[in-house]
Design brief:
With 460 residues, the protein is mostly helical. The chain has two domains: 2-194, no CATH class; 225-459, MetI-like (MetI-like fold). The protein is 75% helix and 1% strand. The chain has 16 helices and two strands. The protein has helices at residues 2-28, 40-76, 87-103, 112-150, 157-197, 200-205, 229-260, 263-274, 281-302, 312-322, 324-336, 340-348, 353-381, 385-390, 408-416, 425-459; strands at 209-210, 225-226. Helix 5 (157-197) crosses helix 16 (425-459). The longest helix is centred in the middle third of the chain and has 41 residues, at 157-197. The protein is flat. It starts with a helix and ends with a helix. The relative contact order is 0.09.
């Protein structure tokens, strides 16, 4: 709440600075704005940037270092922590302190020392908020004063503003790149720890998935099996079924909406079709578990087939319905972006409507269509809720869509739920699964880029 108040305060001061800078620039030349190097609004932007950018930099530094400082001060007085305490135990103690601070001293596991640490934590948080408020106002006001002081006839405000914007764009790009590197690094680091406990060959080529229960150090259990082939087979099976539904239906819908439908039908049908993308996945899961799965089981039993209560076919069909908008909307936009000159040239040579669509429009729009399909595949591979509710948690190695299977994302959630020992192979297996999924998605993107590059050269 306090952060929101500080943000609105800075925005208000930046808005005030904009009008002050613009007015000061105009008054500095006696109202003759032709004597200014830049337009008056650029001087307003200049003052606003002086007011907002230092404060933004302060916010970033604060949110990076403030939790570490407070955590260090709080844990310094906890006698249960010493040089031999593991990082996992330190994190658990800190989590307990924050839980007590958030829920009061009536927590059953609260000890006097933990209560004192929680009170200390709350006091430090209040001091931190007060310091942040004073610093934010000080930085904003000082920036406002400096920006207004620099306003003058010779100030190249436009150049300064454009330079600041270029730096912001560069910083945004760097943040995106660093975020990607951080995600990959975290997956790789934890996956390496997992492969130090479980051989890579067993994980990639093992046929049995029965992960060890992550137990505390004072307990024992038998070693589990970490063969991930059933997991990846289930992921590919459900994704394949989903794409068999989404690609034909989505692509044909896009062709109809863009080339054959009247404006009235398109104006009604396209929004209705895109509503599918806005339905929560848990609703799709309920629909799959309560409607689709029983229907498939009843039909299968009527034909004398053995159908599980939770099956890959039920999850794949509903998942395919869910990702239809990803294919149809992107394909529709790409098809409509094909130049009209290509259509007119086909008609001038005697081509029919269907011939124009099949031999001219679709090949020209193929790069964008492939991109939409790749996005849909990534969405299918990453789906969790529908699989949990309609396909189950059983890691069965089967190509029969009528049997229960599971996917990598479902297992990742299952492995990380509950009171887990983070150094356990079971917990670390989630990162290994995530790394494999990342590599698969990367390969799909590379294939899509190759296809796009090939056909873009042909039709540009």
């Amino acid at each position: 709440m306090q952060t929101t108040i500080f943000t609105f305060t800075v925005l208000l001061l930046a808005l005030i600075g904009f009008y002050m800078g613009r007015a000061r620039a105009v008054s500095s030349v006696g109202g003759n704005i032709r004597q200014l190097h830049s337009l008056p609004r650029h001087y307003g932007y200049y003052v606003s940037l002086w007011c907002g950018l230092p404060t933004l930099f302060l916010f970033i530094l604060w949110f990076i270092f403030e939790p570490q400082i407070i955590n260090s001060l709080v844990l310094h007085n906890v006698t249960a922590i010493n040089d031999e305490t593991s990082s996992a135990m330190v994190a658990r103690i800190l989590s307990d302190i924050k839980f007590i601070a958030a829920n009061g001293t009536n927590v059953k596991s609260a000890t006097p020392e933990m209560i004192a640490a929680a009170d200390h934590y709350l006091a430090l948080k209040k001091i931190g908020i007060a310091c942040l408020g004073v610093a934010v106002l000080a930085f904003a006001i000082v920036g406002l004063v400096i920006g207004n002081k620099n306003i003058g006839e010779k100030l190249k405000a436009r150049d300064q503003v454009e330079k600041a914007i270029r730096i912001l764009l560069l910083a945004s790009s760097v943040v995106a790149i660093l975020t990607t590197i951080g995600i990959v690094s975290s997956l790789l680091f934890e996956a390496i720890r997992f492969f130090g406990k479980v051989p890579l060959s067993e994980f990639l080529f093992g046929l049995e998935w029965s992960p060890q229960i992550a137990l505390r150090k004072d307990q024992v259990a038998s070693q589990g099996s970490f063969g991930a082939v059933p997991i990846f087979a289930g992921t590919m099976l459900i994704s394949f079924i989903a794409m068999c539904v989404a690609v034909p239906v989505g692509l044909l819908s896009a062709i109809y909406m863009s080339e054959y439908a009247t404006p009235k039908v398109r104006g009604l049908g396209k929004p209705v079709l895109e509503i599918l993308a806005g339905i929560p996945t848990v609703v799709y899961g309920f629909f799959a578990a309560l409607v689709v799965a029983p229907t498939i089981r009843n039909i299968g039993e009527g034909w004398g087939l053995e159908v599980a209560s939770e099956s890959a076919l039920a999850a794949g069909l509903v998942m395919g319905i869910m990702i239809i908008p990803f294919v149809s909307s992107l394909s529709d936009d790409v098809i409509r972006a094909v130049p009209q000159a290509l259509r007119d040239g086909s008609y001038a040579l005697g081509g029919t409507k269907s011939e124009t669509v099949l031999q001219v429009i679709l090949p020209a729009a193929l790069p964008g269509i492939v991109g939409g399909i790749m996005l849909a595949i990534s969405r299918a591979i990453g789906e969790t809720m529908i699989v949990v509710m309609a396909a189950g948690l059983s890691a069965n190695l089967t190509a029969n869509p009528l049997q229960a299977v599971t996917t990598a994302t479902v297992q990742m959630v299952t492995l990380l739920v509950g009171d887990q020992e983070f150094d356990s192979p079971k917990t670390l297996a989630a990162f290994a699964l995530g790394l494999v999924l990342f590599c698969v998605t990367l390969c799909l993107n590379v294939i899509a880029l190759r296809v796009v590059a090939k056909y873009r050269e042909k039709y540009d």
